[in-house]
Amino acid sequence: MRFLRILMLFLICATGLAVAFHDPAKKMVPTCYSDGYACPGGCDAHVVFNREDNGTRNAFDPNSERDNPRPCRGGRPCRICFSEDESSCMTVTYRGPGPSEGIFDFTPAFYKENCTKDNLPEPLMQVCRDAAHRVEMLKKRVNCFETPDDPKCLDLMTISAKRKAADQIYFDECRTLGEAKFNSKYADRPALQRTWGCNYEMNGSGGGEVGSDRRLLLPAACGPNSFVGREGLDCCANDVFAAALLQRECAEYFPRK
Fold first, then answer.
1. What are phi and psi for residue 59, nearest 5 degrees?
2. Cβ–Cβ under 8 Å, residues 144 and 253
3. Is the torsion defined by CA of 212, 200, 196, 174 positive or negative?
4. Where on the phi/psi map is residue 172: left (φ > 0), alpha (ψ -120 to 50), or beta?
5. How far is residue 101's CA from residue 59's CA, in Å, rounded to a whole number?
6. How many Å apart are CA 228 and CA 206, to the nearest integer?
7. 94: which strand partners?
8. Please, what is the end-to-end C-alpha distance for the chain in angstroms?
9. Dist CA 58 CA 120 (whole Å)
10. What digits encode the pLDDT tens for the residues 239-250?
11. How far is CA 161 from the centre of its chain?
């Protein structure tokens, strides 16, 4: 009996130590994304983040404790924290896995819904302040979605529309056949193969800081009156606030006068 009591005491202490010496929360970075038909939940107000950050002190099921976190589930509320500070936490809708570790990726709809609130975590407040400033800058520029025939817009809008129309044929075929059959059909043309709901290229061709094998969003993945931005990661449309959030991605659609 004494042995059992000692064993139970040891287990209790070990459990307590495991809770007490948990890994501290990371400093998470807020970003914005809008990838058309690939965006879950109709691109409603939500967040996506890396699987490695799920079920941690940065992101956990609100029905669990931060010291003993359970993973968030898609389409359900999720408690996210930008740091160890409790004031950096808020409850949002989680839509699934997303970018690299250390990033909370929100939709433009999320920012539209929350930027008017005065109790946001500071990292989000900073994004909102920066976006508000950038909106005023973009309003002073040419809006190519409103004036596609403007000399500063004509070539860009013509090329964007042609690329989208050309890709629409393969997008529709992929949706009809399904990715597996579509990619098998075009096995000898890897540049045409698609993934992630037929919205992204299967074989990465994108360059940039994240590597030369980055998979790019394909033109037809963007909805009506919307085109893929310069980085090939998001859709740009006649939405100045979203363009302000996506920054460089959509800047070319709002050239200086």
1. -155, 120
2. yes
3. negative
4. alpha
5. 12
6. 13
7. 47, 76
8. 85
9. 16
10. 999 999 999 999
11. 24
* The residue type at 127: V
Specify the range with the lowest mean pLDDT, choosing from 52-61, 137-146, 205-214, 226-235: 205-214
Provide the residue type at 154 as one letter: L
Q: Could you read off the pLDDT of 124-173 as tens digits, one per residue?
A: 999 999 999 999 999 999 999 999 999 999 999 999 999 999 999 999 99
For residue 10, pLDDT beyond 80: no
Rounded Cα gap, residues 135 and 240, in angstroms: 6
**Residue 163 CB partners (closer than 8 Å, separation 6+):** 219, 227, 228
SS3 state at 7:
helix
Q: Which residue has the tokens 């990838």?
A: 35
Tokens of 118: 């005065």
Which of 5, 9, 47 lies closest to 28, judged by CA?
A: 47
Return the exposure string of 222-243: e unless at least 16 CB atoms fall within 10 Å of the residue's CB, then b: beeebbbbebbbbbbbebbbbb
Q: How confident is the model at residue 17 (pLDDT cuts 50, 70, 90)?
A: very low
Which amino acid, residue 18?
Answer: A
In this structure, what token pair is assigned to residue 251?
A: 């800047």
pLDDT for position 210: 45
Question: How buried is 186 (Cβ within 10 angstroms: 0-12 exposed, 13-18 middle, 19+ buried)?
Answer: middle
